[in-house]
Write a structure and sequence with these properties.
two-stranded antiparallel ribbon, 6 helices
């Protein structure tokens, strides 16, 4: 069964998605991430499945209730971070990144993606499926045309918070409840 799923995934990556993106009125554009991601992450079929699972999880828990465009933007942040430091050599490493913080009264761990430090709810089937489709498409290098300008986005936060680091970054766009940034040019 697992082999059948891998074959189906490969058909989607190498045949269906590229064909959709080549249609003249396609809403998809190729951002040429595939070669970059594959050069950073040794994507053998089992490893690719693991990397896609990590990306699916990040998309689901960070933006599962958002539009496909919002999900794609979150996935782009994760993929764009791959290879930006020695510790970020894979999608899973990016998603799992955390660091200890020593407080005056206690110490705790801060996660780059908040869901990693929180108790997670069981995924809802349809939202998980859509998140997985987005993760597969982004890992194959395709996003909706509206995100063509989002090249280089590395950070995001919800509109409910105002992190101090956001003052030092270039705001690129806001999609629903998330604001996306990149390093200043």
């Amino acid at each position: 069964m697992r082999q059948l799923l891998m074959v189906m995934a490969l058909v989607v990556y190498w045949i269906i998605i590229p064909n959709l993106a080549h249609e003249a009125d396609s809403p998809l554009v190729n951002l040429n991430y595939t070669q970059y991601v594959e050069s950073q992450v040794k994507l053998t079929p089992p490893n690719r499945a693991n990397e896609e699972h990590c990306l699916t999880e990040a998309v689901y828990y960070e933006s599962g209730n958002q539009s496909v465009l919002g999900k794609e933007a979150v996935a782009l942040v994760v993929v764009n971070r791959v290879g930006t430091s020695r510790a970020r050599r894979s999608v899973c490493a990016v998603v799992q990144e955390s660091y200890p913080v020593q407080g005056t009264e206690d110490s705790h761990v801060v996660c780059q993606f908040s869901y990693r430090c929180e108790e997670r709810r069981a995924p809802m089937k349809e939202m998980w499926k859509e998140s997985r489709t987005v993760a597969q498409r982004v890992m194959s290098g395709y996003v909706h045309r509206e995100l063509d300008m989002a090249s280089g986005i590395l950070y995001f936060h919800t509109t409910a918070v105002h992190p101090s680091w956001s003052k030092t970054k270039e705001k690129v766009m806001q999609i629903e409840e998330h604001i996306f940034y990149r390093e200043p040019l």
